Amino acid sequence: MGKETTKYQVCTKYRHEDDGYTIIEVLVAIAIFAIGMLAIASMQIGATQGTTTARSNTELTALAEDQMERLTRLPFDDDDLVANHDGNSSTGNVHTDDANHSRFRAEWWVTDNDDLMETKTVTLTARDMSRGRLNLTLQHIFHEVVREED
To answer: Ramachandran region of residue 115, left (φ > 0), alpha (ψ -120 to 50) or beta?
Structure first.
């Protein structure tokens, strides 16, 4: 009688336990790994851009607040607080400060308030020149302090 072959023996006849992985299995594993790495790289780029934008926003806000604080310490009749001639805050006497900040620029417009006695409104706009879409605008109303002499 001849030797009978079982179903299990036929399936394992061409595959030994120590043969390793097929090329298809390796390619599928590499593809899954590559997709995961691309997702991680994309998240890292997004995080870096978010950090850069947050830093620019912080620097721009600090510049605008510092400039407005400097303006509040000036005398009421200082040249940097000269009002626009036509009363329109979008034209005339634009003051700028970009000497110390090549990347940032601060501009302010001064308007005399006719309805409020001895007051001026200063509108300050700070811009990030490297990121044209990043602007910050602050407004402050100044009033003249009249000191009576004894």
So the answer is: alpha
Q: What are the φ and ψ backbone dihedral angles of 30, each rounded to 5 degrees?
A: -65, -40
Mean pLDDT of the 44-58 span: 93
CA distances to 39, 48, 53, 56 from 44, in Å: 9, 6, 14, 18
Whole-angstrom Cα distance, residue 35 to residue 42?
A: 11
pTM: 0.63
Backbone phi, psi, residue 41, to 5° = -65, -40
Q: Give the best-scoring range by mean pLDDT among 26-30, 59-63, 101-105, 118-122.
A: 26-30
CA dist., res. 150 & res. 29, Å (int) = 90
Strand 104-113 vs strand 119-128: parallel, antiparallel, or unpaired? antiparallel
What Cα–Cα distance (Å) separates residue 27 from each residue in 21, 30, 35? 10, 5, 12
**Quick one: 67 exposed, middle or buried, by C-beta within 10 A (0-12, 13-18, 19+)?**
buried
